[in-house]
Amino acid sequence: SSDVCSSDLATHFDLxxxxxxxxxxxxxxxxxxxxxxALKNGREETTYEHFTHVAVCTGQFQTARIPNISxxxxxxxxxxxxxxxxxxxxxxxxxxxxxxxIGLGESGADVSADVAKVAxxxxxxxxxxxxxxxxxxxxxxxxxxxxxxxxxxSASHKSDSLRRQWRWAATNGxxxxxxxxLAAHFIRSGDEAGSxxxxxxxxxxxxxxxxxxFRIASVERFEQSEAVFDDGHREAFDAVLLCTGYxxxxxxxxxxxxxxxxxxxxxxxFKPGVAASLAFVGxxxxxxxxKIGRAHV
Length: 297
Known about the structure:
The protein is of the alpha/beta class. Helices cover 20% and strands 24% of the residues. It contains 6 helices and 17 strands. The strands form 6 sheets. A 5-stranded parallel β-sheet has the order 6-15-7-8-11. Helix 2 packs parallel to helix 6 (202-208), helix 4 runs antiparallel to helix 5 (177-187) and helix 5 (177-187) packs across helix 6 (202-208). The two termini are 35 Å apart.
C-alpha cells in the first residue's frame, strides 16, 4: 500500500539480510570459479567475499564530465557542474552575475532557468539546435504519451512529422511566447536519432521573459573571464555552469572488464569475451522513459 515506507517493505519481504549498508565495493576480480569482491565497511576495514555472479547496477550518473576547454581552469569566476547544483541553496552565488551555461540536456534546461531568476543574464551555449519537447503533452508526460507504433517509425519520419506540427504552431501562433520560441528552436533541430530529446521547456520560459538567451556555438577557449566562441564571438562572464553530463566510470573493475560504449556490449549488458556471470544493468539510457529488457543467456 502507498502508506508503507520502503524500510517496511524490505522488512516484510525479508530483504535486509541481503542488503549490506555502509559497505563500499573496492574491487571485483575474476577467479577460478566466479568473482572475488573486496569490500570496505564503515570502519574502513577490508573484507573479501566470493560470488558466482555480479550485476553492476551503479548507472552512469556518477562522475561529472568536465569538458576539455582551453583556459577553463584559469577562469577567475564561479565554476559549477550541474551534478553539484542543489537548487535554491546554490542560487545566491549567481545573483546579479553574467552566467554562461554550457549544455541543454535535462539539467541544462532546468538549472539555467533556475539561475535566470536571480542572474543579470544567462547565456546557454550549445553546438547545435536541440530537439526539445514540453514535459507534458496532451495532458500526459511526454514519455508515456507516445505509442509503440510511434517509436517503431524511423527517426527521420518522426522528426519530419514533429517539425510539421511545430511549423503549424509557429504559423498559427503558439499559445504563449515560450511555446513560440520552442517551436522556432525545434524546427531548426536535427533528426531525433542525432539529438536526444530534452523534455522540459523551462529554458524557453526564461527566454520569453528576456532573462536567458541561446548562442548556437561551441566555447573554443577562455581568456580569463572572456569566453571565445567558435563563431568568433567573445563575451565576458562572471560564472560558468557546466551542464555537460557524465562519463561512465566503474572504478572497482579493472580496465579489461569495462567499456567505452555500452553499444559494444551484447544486449547492452554483457561485454564480449567476458563470462556471462558479469552483467551491466541500467547503463542504457533511451531517449524517453526507462528501458526494461530480458535476456536469455
